[in-house]
């Protein structure tokens, strides 16, 4: 393995039960007797050849990598001059007893090998794990392994220093070294190797790696340890471990909860990558509707309403700066489509509370702001259904919402593109989009997992520079991120809610819907640049102007992109 952690050899340390004992026995015979497997010593040459052919067939079926285990007690070699066909090169006192005992066990070993071959063939026929479909179906052995992973680790790991060489039937040298946690520099590579093993159906290696990763994970540690904990949880969720049983019943129920919405808003408030993206969207709406007496903003996932509190403040501030300009009337319409997965009852009930907060804020600032909710399907949306009035300047805001709507890869109806075409038909002054810069939509599981490690690793690094590691708010934000990444990498098809795309794909999708990019002018860029300057005391954040968008990131990795369309 690229990580340097030979996960397959960790079985001895973590006790994977009967299944792995069969596997170990199979490996001893597959090694041609070189590992000191006493049960094969008195076989005739013809019988040896017959068993070797059977093992080669099993090897071809599963492509089991051969190992060579050398016992310090005895070494068996084939001699053409020996009448028996084998002889001992080392004759310790216990060798003869071992020789007799191995003969007694040979029949049992052969039965075990036949059982193993039967299981291997059944595994192939049943196709227990579908890489393309991302099924979480597992064998009983895999469930047993997950139970062990969820139990507390051993109190005293076995040390590798000055340890005697183990016998082939008990463990390998790698198993004792695996009892120690991997270094932080290799944890991420081990995560990637584990995801690959799961995708390939190599549960033996995956389970061993997960046990090692469990030792390196720490939700209260440094960013690498937190990332390991987050991605480990996602992998366990993918494999259908007992800890994820509730999530399996409702694949994204937690993503629609009030706690998740609250924690998401906290993330928007803490991280400049999200805060400045939302700020750019608000400024683009104000710039496109300037000098308009009536502004109507339509939103399809208003969340906790934090973006609109900032928008109302911006309208009031602009009115103070230009006394001759009467403050416009502002109407905000929240669309609740009952067919969308994230339109949960909790989110719908929360809209009334948000409306009350907006009403109090606008009254305090002396602005005329109206808030309404429309419960309509996308196919039913038009100007009348949305309550559009004559003389209104219409703006449509998509902040972190398009990525939660299924596209053609999930449903032939393609709700994502249908919504964009509906919006285009309304003739809005501006359509704003803010999204995470990561591809979790159509990428296969290993690629999604790799991108998730890179993306969330950068995001956790940036949070480490902003908030204390023991901060309660940070803990809630990272729990929110953990739910998002678990859904993104552990779920497939309609069970996956998190489906962001990179800006290049959004640009193509918007173009197919008939929308054209709107370049951000100085009225948008300069205030954002000025606000970005307030974070210069925290080096590492980046601000990048791209063709048709503004990118915000950490250490060169773009995390969010804001764009405008018409």
Automatic annotation (TrEMBL):
Entry protein name: Scarecrow-like protein 8
Keywords: Transcription, Transcription regulation
Residue segments, region Leucine repeat I (LRI): 185-245
InterPro entries in the record: TF_GRAS
Family: Belongs to the GRAS family.
Annotated motif VHIID, positions: 295-299
UniProt-annotated stretches for the region SAW: 490-566
Region Disordered, residue ranges: 132-180
Organism: Iris pallida
Low complexity composition bias: residue spans: 159-180
């Amino acid at each position: 393995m690229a990580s340097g952690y030979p996960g397959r050899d960790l079985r001895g340390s973590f006790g994977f039960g009967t299944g792995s004992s069969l596997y170990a026995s199979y490996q001893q015979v597959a090694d041609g007797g070189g590992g000191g497997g006493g049960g094969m010593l008195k076989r005739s040459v013809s019988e040896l050849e017959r068993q070797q052919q059977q093992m080669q067939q099993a090897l071809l079926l599963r492509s089991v990598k051969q190992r060579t285990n050398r016992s310090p007690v005895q070494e068996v070699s084939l001699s053409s001059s020996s009448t028996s066909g084998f002889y001992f090169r080392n004759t310790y006192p216990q060798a003869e007893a071992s020789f007799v005992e191995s003969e007694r066990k040979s029949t049992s070993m052969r039965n075990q090998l036949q059982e193993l071959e039967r299981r291997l063939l059944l595994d192939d026929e049943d196709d227990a794990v579908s890489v393309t479909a991302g099924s979480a179906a597992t064998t009983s052995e895999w469930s047993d392994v997950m139970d062990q992973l969820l139990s507390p680790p051993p109190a005293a790991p076995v040390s590798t220093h000055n340890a005697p060489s183990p016998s082939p039937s008990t463990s390998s040298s790698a198993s004792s070294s695996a009892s120690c946690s991997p270094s932080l520099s290799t944890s991420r590579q081990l995560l990637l190797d584990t995801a690959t093993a799961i995708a390939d159906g190599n549960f033996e290696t995956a389970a061993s790696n997960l046990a090692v990763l469990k030792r390196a994970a720490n939700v209260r540690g440094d960013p690498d340890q937190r990332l390991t904990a987050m991605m480990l949880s996602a992998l366990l969720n993918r494999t259908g471990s007992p800890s994820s049983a509730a999530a399996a019943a409702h694949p994204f129920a937690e993503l629609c909860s009030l706690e998740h919405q609250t924690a998401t808003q906290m993330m928007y408030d803490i991280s400049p990558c999200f805060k400045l993206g939302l700020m750019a969207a608000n400024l683009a709406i104000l710039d496109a509707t300037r000098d308009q007496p009536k502004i109507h903003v339509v939103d399809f996932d208003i969340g906790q309403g934090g973006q609109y509190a900032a928008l109302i403040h911006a309208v009031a501030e602009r009115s103070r700066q230009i006394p001759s300009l009467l403050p416009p009337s502002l109407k905000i319409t929240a669309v609740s489509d009952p067919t969308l997965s994230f339109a949960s009852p909790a989110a719908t009930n929360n809209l009334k509370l948000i409306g009350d907060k907006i009403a109090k804020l606008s009254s305090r600032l002396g602005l005329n702001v109206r808030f309404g909710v429309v419960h309509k399907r996308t196919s039913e949306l038009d100007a009348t259904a949305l309550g559009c009035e004559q003389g209104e300047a219409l703006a449509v805001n998509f902040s972190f919402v398009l990525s939660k709507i299924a596209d053609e890869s999930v449903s032939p109806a393609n709700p994502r593109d249908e919504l964009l075409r509906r919006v285009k038909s309304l003739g809005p002054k501006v359509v704003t989009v803010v999204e995470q810069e990561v591809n979790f939509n159509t990428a296969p599981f290993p690629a999604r997992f790799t991108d998730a490690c890179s993306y969330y690793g950068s995001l956790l690094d940036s949070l480490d520079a902003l908030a204390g590691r023991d901060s309660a708010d940070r803990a809630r934000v990272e729990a929110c991120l953990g739910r998002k990444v678990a859904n993104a990498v552990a779920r497939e098809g309609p069970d996956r809610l998190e489906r962001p795309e990179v800006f290049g794909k959004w640009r193509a999708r918007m173009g197919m819907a008939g929308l054209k990019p709107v370049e951000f002018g100085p009225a948008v860029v300069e205030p954002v640049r000025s606000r970005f300057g307030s974070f210069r005391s925290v080096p590492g954040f980046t601000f990048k102007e791209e063709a048709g968008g503004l990118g915000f990131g950490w250490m060169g990795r773009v995390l969010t992109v804001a764009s405008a369309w018409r």
